[in-house]
């Protein structure tokens, strides 16, 4: 996944109660979309804080 040079995305093991973790990546929009919730994850390239917004 592309982002600013300072972007950091941390992944962690999901809890037992939240196992539907299927994500699709859209290369055109550079977004990860969570299949079940419809939420998208992108790196905020306008800031150098490396935050990921859902």
Automatic annotation (TrEMBL):
It comes from the Eukaryota. PROSITE patterns: RICIN_B_LECTIN. InterPro entries: Ricin_B-like_lectins (IPR035992), Ricin_B_lectin (IPR000772). Residues 4-52 form the Ricin B lectin domain. This is Ricin B lectin domain-containing protein. It comes from Adineta steineri.
